[in-house]
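Record pair follows.
FIRST:
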Amino acid sequence: MKKTQFLTAFILSLWLCTCESLSTADIAKDPVISLNSVELTERAFTGVDGLCKITVENPYSAAIPFPHIEWELFIADAKLTTGAIESDASIKSKSAVIADVPFHVDYADLYAAIASVKDASKNGAKETGFKIVLTAAFNLPVLGEKKLPLEVEGTMPLLQAPRFSGMALSIGKIDFTGITLNCNVDVENPNAFEIPFPNIDWDYSVNNNSFVKGGVERAAPVAALSVSPVAIQVDVKYADLYDLFQSLLAAGEAEGVLTLVSDLAAIPAFAGETLTLNLAGKLPLPKPPSIRFTGITVRNVNIFEGLLAGNSKIDFTIGFEIENKNSFAINLDSLSYTLAVNGSEWMSGNAPNKTAINANQKAVIPINATINTLTLIREIGALVASRKANVPYVCEGGVTITAAAFPCLDPLVLPFSLTGVTRF
């Protein structure tokens, strides 16, 4: 007991010699550190900046040196980063100062170091807790070194990968030569800060074989908590498709898949990972109809009877055969033609009526025509007089085809040039 009293008296005497203004009550006091505030000062796709403010109080009657402060940042019980604060300043007696403890969390470092946190972000977690453990070491006169701990807790947002949403694949335009597919998709940013637009590569495959490829690049970032719409146009030319895949020549449709792939290289925390989307659908393969000229049939000859009156004529029936090679009905909306016989134009005209041609069926289109021109008398007379058996002809024109059961199919204007011989 006497030794303790002697030691206390000795320390007190040293203290009074060093700090004459202190009272005897100061020896029983300790400096105080406490949390003033903690906040996130900046959020970005690369990381989070934060600022922890702590209050350091000097309860003594004399100034004391600013403490040496060391701190460690923990996330999911794993130490992520450390830091220290040094200052030559002093804290006046009976006063307090606020010290800033800035910290930074790099998402790439965080996700590389703590797999569980990265997995949580992939599973939809939007934030995680963090803890800052501080130790303030005071070098006090007479009393020597004192270490005071402080723990600060808070939450910070997790970086979430962009994702595809609002997917739609539709036919933009289709005719008998090819099809244009329109893909509309949104790149969704679920984060409360903007992220770079991820470059997208796309590949359209037919029957599991790559057919046409492309890419989407955009300089503008995806704004926080928003979507960036993307439109992709895929042009399929049937001639090119059939050159590559002969097996499709007889097919009415094929399996088409549009694959979107983004490697997320623009976001360091997800470098090496990919975002993938497959949009599958049937690719229609409409076939152009075939046209065959079935010949000329003479129905009535009145050359000499109307010769003096100037209305000599020959009545014909011209036949066209249209074959529909598709699994849906088509309509022959118009047919125009010009017929040249034995090197001279005899007639031209149009089919009078529209004709429906059922799936995988043929239809014969008879067109009645009459030649009524004096300029052809010599040639007609020569043909009749010579009783020439085989007469060459050329029939040229075009047909317009629509598909009532396939409303998105553009009308087809199909020219034709048919040659052969006929008999009178």
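SECOND:
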Amino acid sequence: MDKNTAINTTKKFFMGCGVVSFALFAIVLCIGIFVDDDEQAVTDSQVSQSDGHTDSLKVQGVLEGDPYEELESLTGMTEVKAEVKSLANFIKIQKQREAQGMKTPAISYHCVFTGSPGTGKTTVARILARIYKDLGVLKKGHLVETDRSGLVAEYVGQTAVKTNHVCDSAIGGVLFIDEAYALTDEHSGGYGGEAIATLLKRMEDDRDSLVVIVAGYTNEMKRFINSNPGLQSRFTRYINFPDFKPGELYEIYINRAKKYGYSLDSDADSYLRAHMKKVFEHKSRNFGNGRYVRNVFEKTITEQANRLSKKSNPSAKELNELTLDDVRRACASVKY
């Protein structure tokens, strides 16, 4: 092989290697892109399925009708109603002052709802979201309900992503965090501190489009707010939800029965009154209040159905009437 032939052969070899190298590089790059996409897909899945909860985020649409009438229709809750009306009046007047070019103080729309389970905190939060919308504070007025499991992820660095997703869904409305004190529970593990830091940042960045209401037991919520200076500065308005009194528990049951066309015979009515008094006097810290009443009512109509199923053709009166045995069996089976 002469010198020129050897040179040409060498050039062709290296040119071929260049083409091959470029092809290999392109293949590796594409594999890397697909791997990155796959890892991102896994990450998103981890965020959405963390803790195994699929029901930790609930979006409730804007309340229909007049929110003030809805507030008034609630059983009991005299102090709560007064607090909500006072807040609404204050915002209304400040908006009017602002419209006329007058100076107005900074208003914090975020709230802390304290009280036992079943005392109407979520219901009032939804009503308040609609009031905020009507007053021009929020554009949408919907309610997004969640808890610790909806904000905290199992994986390092993913809690902020998960919390941001929840905040995004609440823009223009109210984010309601039930049992918020669980975010600082050292025994629960996880990354509650990261969720709180992310939440505080979003409350500042989206202060004109996001309202946050945190809720839970009174003492636990006080410790939760006092655990972080950022929480103390942003949550300055507290509304306490007291336990329902015996007469109010009875009224909640009766209103629910009337809603579905049921009525109690005289013996059942007397028994129910006495039972709600006994329940109130012996209730535990975890008593469910309105939730307990709802469970008793649902159990009562189940007992009625079991009784009437033995008849081939019950009358309309029988289908609507709840007897002493129905109520007594229901009360005996539902724990308080």
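COMMENT: Residues 13-54 have pLDDT under 50 and may be disordered.
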